[in-house]
Structure formats: C-alpha cells, structure tokens
Amino acid sequence: MDIRAIVFDVNGTLIDIETDEGLEEIYRAIAHFLMYQGISIHRWEVRNLYFQIMQQQRERSGEIFAEWDAVGVWREFLTIKATEYTRSLPAEKQAQLPHFLAELHRGIARKKLRLYPQVQETLDLLKTRYRMAIVSDAQSAYAVPELCAVGIAHYFEPIIVSGDYGYRKPDPRLFQKALDGLRVQPHQALYIGNDIYHDIHGAQQVGMKAIYASYSQSNPLSGTIEPDYILYHFADLPQAINYFEAL
After folding, report:
1. pLDDT score of 223
2. What predicted TM-score, i.e. pTM, was given to this entire model?
3. Which of 203, 181, 184 is nearest to 192 (CA)?
4. Which of 150, 155, 175, 181 counts the most CB atoms within 10 A of its CB?
5. H helices of 67-139, where?
6. Does one domain contain both 231 and 199?
7. 240 and 122 housed in the same domain
C-alpha cells in the first residue's frame, strides 16, 4: 500500500483525558459568573437548562448521528435567561459570552489532560514522511485549545471537529472531509482510534484501513467489527504503518 497520510482520533487515542460534566462546582461557578451578567439563577437550574438545550439541539438536527454545539447551547441559554441588564452589555461582550461559558464549563469539568506515553516522540518521527490530520467527536471551543495545551496541534492539518458540522462519527462525511483536506484517496490513508464502532467502523466505511488503539481500554473489541490492526502501545505505530506499506 502507498500510505501518504495518517488520520487520528484525539481523546482516548492521543490524549488521556477525564471529564465530569455532573460536578456541582461547574454550575455553581457559572451561576456566580452569570450574576455579574445580570442573570440570577440557581446552579441546578443552570445544569438542567444546559442539558435540556443540548438534547433539544440533537432532536432538531435530523441527523442519524447528531452532534451538539457547545457554544450554541450557551448562546441559546443566554437568549432565554437574558435580562434588560444583560442586553445592555457591550455588543462585543455579549458576542463573546457563549464562547467563554463553553470554555469555563469544560475547564472545570476537566479532571485530567495529558498525552499517552510516546505520543509526541512518535509524531516527530512520522511528520517528515506523512501528512497528518484529526477527526474528533468534540467541540472546537475546547478541542483545539486542548491539543495546543499538550503541544501537538501543529502536527495536524486539517483538524476536523464534529461540533462544527452537526454530526458525529461514524458518519462517513467527517472522514471524507479529512481525506479531502489531505488530498489523498482512502486507500492512501490510515485511521487510528479507540472506539470500535465510531472510529474503526466509521473509517472502514469510506475505504480506509483502521487501527484500533487498545491501550486506552475505553471500548473493548466487538465481535461484529474487526479492526485492520491492533495497536497496544502508541510507540508501535511506525511498525503498524510498515505492516500496511508491505501489503
């Protein structure tokens, strides 16, 4: 095989992350912040309305694998709860509030953020031989900053984030957008991910060979979907690529 590009999932593949959106402190902090924007609201009302709007977004989308928009959730939240004082704030501040709230929510929910062992060293080895891209089920409001925070955003172009499109993996359109951005055919690219259905099945649908990142142990193998290769350590990725290039 003539492999020219490598496409990666992010969380559970490159980044070891842990978040908890149920933490009371998230909604307490947001409720306190909103008071200074003219909105008096209890933390549990913040939480309930946040999840309600998220669910309504998905229901309205019409997509089979519907994705939500974090900034859009907070924009709608502010529209519902805005007071006369809120609407009197400078237009620039009003425009930035949904982005800030999305980042604040994620920042407090995040409990762990680090690279898996040997990720950066391995990417350094690959960057001279292959073009690399991202296809991630995430939100741009925090996916790109998190890639920057762990020091690897510069390896990837394009970075395809599901929240920008309204649909999630395994929708083949996300994988195709990465292939188009890389200017390669499916048989010229490999995909690496940790979810057997969303990642492996999704990539295989468009004709890509798919490598299962087993080291995160977040999604065990299914008997109905077979990866093309199982990766037990990220540092072994060059060996996996060599396997496909020899086919």
Report:
1. 72
2. 0.93
3. 203
4. 175
5. 70-81, 84-88, 91-109, 119-126
6. yes
7. yes
